Amino acid sequence: MDFDLVIIGAGVVGLAVGKALINGSDKICLIEKNNSYGLETSSRNSEVIHSGIYYPKDSLKSKLCINGNRLLYEHCNDKSIPYNKCGKLIIANNKDSHARLLELQKNADLLDIKYSYLNKEQIKEIEPLIKAEYAIHIENTGVIDSHALMRSLNNELIESDVSIAFKTEVIGISQISNGYQLEIKNPDSSRAIVSTKVLINCAGLYASFIASLLGKKDNQYQTQFWKGSYYWINNKKVKSIKSLIYPVPNQQLNGLGIHTTKGLDGRVKLGPDAEFLGESLQFDYSVNTNKRQEYYESCKEYLPFLELEDIEPDFAGIRPKLQKPGEKFRDFIIRNENANGYTNFINLIGIESPGLTSSLAIGEYVKQIINWD
Question: Which among 3, 9, 160, 342 has most CB atoms closer than 10 A?
C-alpha cells in the first residue's frame, strides 16, 4: 500500500480529519483538486462559531457542533488564532416568530445550552440599535478567522510529515484487497495510481460525486446545492453593534435567515439567503445585485436605521445540503460504508453549517469509526 490513509478534500473538515489522525498512522495523504486548502465552502461563509441550538437532540449536527464549539475555542487559545466570543441574539418581533423562539428555548434546555431569555428592554441594554420584542442571548457564540484556523491545521499536518497533494484530482476509485485504488490526475495532467487502506471522502461540494465513483448510486447521498449571497452595511452606525443578530430560522432549517455578522475586521455583513440551485456541479459565485431590496426588507424590521443605499454586495458561497426545498431537516452523513461492503470507505456528505464549528469534533468522530482490525 502507498498509504495507510487518504483524505480527499482539504477544506476545513478534511484538514481537521487529518489532524485527528496524525498519531494513528505514519502514511497519510490529503488530495485536493484546488491549488490550496479551503478555497470553496470553508472560505465562503459567515465564520460563526455556533452553539448547536438549532439542531435536534442526538443528531450529529447537534452533538458535533456542541463538542466542536468547545474544541474550537481550546484550539484557538492554544494556537493564538483570532476569534471574538461576541455572543448571539436570536430575535423575534411578532407572534409567529415568538412561537418559534420558544421552540428554540425548549431545544436549548434539552441540549443543556446556556442562554438568557430577554425582553425588549433587556435587548436594548445589550444592543441599543436593535429593534426586537424578544430574544435568546447565547454567550458562547462567536466569530473566528477561518483562514487562520485552516492555516494552523495545514501547518500541523506539514510538521507531522503528512503528504498534501494540491492541484490533484481523484478521477477513479476501485476496491482492492484490503483497501482502495485511486486513479488521480496530477497537476501536469498526467495520470497515476495510488493505493490506501482507508479512504475518507471530505470532498465538500464534490462529496456525492466522489461517493459515486465506486459505482454505488444512492439518492440519499445526492447533494442539493444552495447558494447564499452576502451584502455588507456601509453605515458607520453599525460599528456599535457587538453581537451577532439572527432572526429565528424556518422549520426546515434550509437557512438560518438573513442575519448580521460583525467580522473580525469590523465590517458588518448581511446574509446569507438560501437560493436553491439543484444538483449541477457548475457554480457561479457572483452576487445578484438585484437582491438589495430583498435584503433591505428582511432586515429593516430589526435594523430600523438602515437605508437601502447602505447595502453593498459582498460575496457568495455554496452550501452542500441534502434536502430540497420543502423537505424536512437532514443530518450530516458521516459513515463507514463497511455495512455496504466497502470497509473503511468513509463518506462525509452534506457537511454544511455547522461544519466549520464542528470540524475538530468531526475529525475525532471519524477517528472513532475507522476499523483498524
Answer: 9
